Amino acid sequence: MTLAVFFGCAFIAFGPAFALFVFTVAKDPLRVIILIAGAFFWLLSLLLSSLVWFIAIKASNSQDLTLQRGLLIFGVFFSVLLQEVFRFAYYRLLRKATEGLAAISDDDGSAISVRQMAYGKLCLCSAENSLVLLGFMLHSGSLDGRFDQMSLCVSCAVAGLGFGIMSGAFSMINILSDSLGPGTVGIFGDSQYYFIITALMTLALTLLHTFWGVLFFEGCEKSRWWVIAAVVSLHLLVAGLSLLNPLYEGSLPPVYGITLLMGVWAFFSSGGSLHSLNALCTRRKAEGESS
Q1: Membrane topology per the record (predicted)?
Q2: Which residues pair with 138 in a beta bridge?
Q3: For residue 35, what is the enclosing H or E element?
Q4: Which sequence spans correspond to the domains of the chain?
Q5: Residue 222 class from Cβ within 10 Å (0-12 exposed, 13-18 middle, 19+ buried)?
Q6: Burial 139-173 (b: 16+ CB within 10 A, else e)
Q7: What is the pTM of this model?
Q8: For residue 17, which of 173, 136, 135 has the smallest C-alpha distance?
Q9: What is the pLDDT of residues 220-274, one digit of tens each?
Q10: Cα–Cα distance measured from residue 224 to residue 221, given in angstroms and rounded to the nearest whole number
Q11: Which end of the chain, N or C, is more open, meaning fewer C-beta atoms within 10 Å of its C-beta?
């Protein structure tokens, strides 16, 4: 039973992220580099926030439970702010590296923009492309040139996905280890759904980081500071909702509502439209009838 819980929770938490990696990142070395760099920047933010929280804990009275809880809340929100600072630093790095990344390509096309490096650009359905609706992934039928429009449409939210994968790994790895036993979940009156709820929360945060990456880079590239403020505010809100656990009905539904909202916003922000979705559905229906 413990093995089933382990694999079930692992697939729930990391299945969509793994699919995004396989279909939109793995085949392009440049996108792999961008994803790994994004994960590294998230690790740097975790290192600094952990250091600050550790110093605060050691300098405080460990017997004062109210103070310790206050420090925990401080650590959560400080970590969120630091993550967003490093997301901006990563944007600045990609902005500086635009010409260099284009130069190392074996293609003679024009330099790729930061917006395209970060998450690609959604394109309308055509005879050459097919849209795969999983975190608005895109798969192209023609991948001859790395920086051509087809190739750009393959990658989506790579920078944010790097943040999300590393965040999810640190959120879930110890939980998965404990799920193998020994022990019985809820034996002392706690929730029996701890593992599945944690997996669902990890999935939501992974997707949210992907969507936030899209919106944050869009806001930076077009100087829409209200978009950046919205991303930071919603990140703080989600972190605050997680503090309601184990009151899961007060945290999980709102988090998934925010995830849905961010997904729709990111889809339209990166070039998606109802027309493209309708064209996709019409094409899929025609292909099904012809086959």
Answers
A1: Multi-pass membrane protein
A2: 131
A3: helix 29-58
A4: 2-290
A5: exposed
A6: ebeeeeebbebbbbbbbbbbbbbbbbbbbbbebbe
A7: 0.81
A8: 135
A9: 888 899 999 999 999 999 999 999 887 888 889 999 999 999 999 988 887 767 7
A10: 8
A11: C
